[in-house]
Amino acid sequence: MMHNINFSAASTEAIIQALCKRLEEIRLSRNISQTDLAEEAGISRSTMTRLADGQKVSLDSFVRVMRALQLTDHLAALLPDPGVRPVERLRFEGAERRRASRKRHENSQWSWGDEEA
């Protein structure tokens, strides 16, 4: 069963529930008991039950379960790489890095602005 969720509009609790439910569905599709997965992940059975129910668990527990399910390669998709994209590297290759500068005004006499006109 797919849980389609608009992550950009969902509440934190809804996102947590959706992610936990997806892990639970993966566990069930692989026919692994909660007890066996909890043992493999190195977490308690009660933590595994909370995760299966979509309740809050620690990030450590979540990652341990993903590791036990051999899903760690999907963790990279959670956050984009902040590095420069390969297309941008090609565009800037060989170019000297420049800093942005403010627009310069023509030479004008500075004044306080309270002179008589």
From TrEMBL:
Q: Which residues form the HTH cro/C1-type domain?
A: 23-75
Keywords associated with the record: DNA-binding
Q: Name one GO molecular function term.
A: DNA binding
Q: Where is this region: Disordered?
A: 95-117
Q: Where are the transmembrane segments?
A: none
What protein am I looking at? Cro/C1-type helix-turn-helix DNA-binding protein
